[in-house]
Design a protein that fits this description.
With 170 residues, this protein is of the alpha+beta class. Helix content is 23%, strand content 35%. It has 2 domains: 133 residues, no CATH class; 34 residues. It is built from 2 helices and 11 strands; from the N terminus they run βαββββββββββα. Strands 1, 2, 3, 7, 8 and 11 form a 6-stranded mixed beta sheet that branches. It has a 3-stranded antiparallel beta sheet with strand order 4-5-10, covered by helices on one side.
């Protein structure tokens, strides 16, 4: 199963930034073809095996204390290749996280937009500040609030129905 690993360099950068008021800002997503084959990602990686396209992160949303969801799009003008690896880079160009795997599903770029909606988890680091250098994903936020509100309304209707049944009205 493909997996996302936080690189050793990322752990060092984030840990070093802890308590200094600085942060590690992730800004770009890169895609590569893994030199034509799938592989197991390692924390010692410093780059993709063969990077073929890079885009800035379009939007992000924090989904938990150590987790961010990021979105990026590679347009139809992106050269066509089989994506076998994906890297997340900070503003200094350092590989922070790597997504790959021996059974990575083969998807092609080029001709159509290649969309990425990926979760990055930083629980491997106990201290430090990670930010995603992109605007908030307003649509994701809107959907989360809408679903929550609908669930609360449904719960309220359920409770009203239960009260009516208890009173013998229903």
């Amino acid at each position: 199963m493909p997996t996302t690993v936080l690189t050793d360099l990322a752990v060092n950068l984030i840990t070093t930034a802890a308590g200094t008021g600085s942060s590690v800002a992730i800004a770009d997503v890169a895609l590569g073809d893994g030199l034509g084959g799938n592989y197991t990602p390692g924390a010692g990686a410093t780059g993709l095996k063969r990077e073929l396209a890079r885009q800035p992160i379009e939007s992000r949303i924090r989904t938990g204390p150590t987790t961010w969801r990021i979105k990026a799009e590679f347009g139809p003008e992106t050269p066509a290749f089989a994506v076998r690896e994906m890297g997340f880079f900070d503003t200094a160009g350092n590989l922070i996280a790597l997504y790959a795997g021996l059974d990575m599903p083969e998807k092609e770029t080029g001709a159509v937009s290649y969309l990425i909606a990926h979760f990055l988890n930083f629980s491997r680091v106990s201290e430090g500040l990670v930010i995603i250098d992109a605007p908030d994903d307003v649509m994701f936020d809107f959907m989360a609030v809408t679903i929550r509100n609908q669930a609360l309304q449904g719960l309220d209707l359920f409770r009203q129905g239960e009260a009516l049944r208890a009173a013998g009205i229903l």
